[in-house]
Amino acid sequence: MGIKQNIEEIITQIPEGVKLLAVSKTKPLSYLEEAYEAGMRDFGENKVQELVKKSENFHEDVRWHLIGHLQTNKVKYLVDKVYLIHSLDSVNLLNEIEKVFGRVNKTANALIQINIGREESKTGILEENLYEFINKIEKCDHVLVKGIMVIIPQGDEESNRRYFKRTKEIFEELKTKKFKNISMEILSMGMTHDYMTAIDEGSTLVRIGTGIFGERNYNAGGEKNE
Fold this sequence. Notes:
By secondary structure, the chain is an alpha/beta fold. It is built from 8 helices and 8 strands; from the N terminus they run H-E-H-E-H-E-E-H-E-H-E-H-E-H-E-H.
């Protein structure tokens, strides 16, 4: 099946109110164009350099999401380019976003990345540090948090469901609180292999790459990676 058919099939599976994010990292603009023609307007990139390059050479009405780990020295390139940063995962990054966006009096929209599986190989805020982190966000003037993002450990459906369920509980708990800079609008969880389970457990945004674009990888220049 082609990209358009893949998107159409996924859209028939996901309920209204769940946003589909096309994970376009490493894919050439020709692939993104097919997705765009099929109605996609939200695209997710892992690397700042690739996001910036694509944003400058693609349709202006596209919303670019940074879903990969964000290094502090790359924040400055995202001003006026990024719609949503999914990977707000440390105090250092928060401080840098506040400083960089503050200099030009702009606001960065972000999701708190929680390390729900407590994996040493992954970044993210641990559950027990969440409220301390939120207190720091509340002191910012140029960062608005719109929800939560998780990348769960690899596992079977039962394990996936457990992590998604716990994340949803945190999301709902935060929803009951009143914050200045934080609202729980977006719960970003679920990828190609587990998005239906994630939706079952309350995800409002699924990040799908392979399920849309297929397995073949390209570098940012559009050349095939063998």
